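Morning F.,

Quick status update on the modeling queue. The single chain you submitted on Monday has been processed. Sequence for confirmation:
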Amino acid sequence: MDHRPNDKGSPYMTLLLLALALLVAPTRPPAISRLTRQHDPPPPPIPPDDSPFQRAADWDLLAACLRAGLPVATAVRAIEVPALDHVAELLALGADPQQAWAKALEDPETAPLAVAARRTARSGTALAQAAAELAARMRADAGDRAEARAQRAAVLVAGPLALCFLPAFVCVGVLPVVLGLAAKFLEQ
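Structure tokens below.
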């Protein structure tokens, strides 16, 4: 018997190497572990947005709550405006609306609503209309302020551009014409 090594390789050796590769190779986690929620830390709390658009959205929400028939105290509590927490508590306790809205008159953001609420103390529907109008006015004012800032920026950008282009215009456009005319008049 001839004990020469097999040139084609041993099938057992191939199977052994394949099994070793499967044992050593990194595996993907099972599909169920990818579907389950990992224990991530909770997201940081979102800071309150004090933009005029947020305040207008608050007034729109107040108007919607009042139109839906909620009592004024519950509707004010629903919009979660910190300056109106005291008002909501007093109204829930049955305080006079004139007295309950007095504290809100001190805050410039809530003063227009407080004036409207004191004026329409008898009807939640009238306060809903006033809150909706206040929201629309706040959005319009914010849009006007944004447009004014954009126009001011355009004016401020024009200054440096004029300082850059005006000397070039004079040197390239005006000076050759003036020198040409001066040369013609001096020849005569």
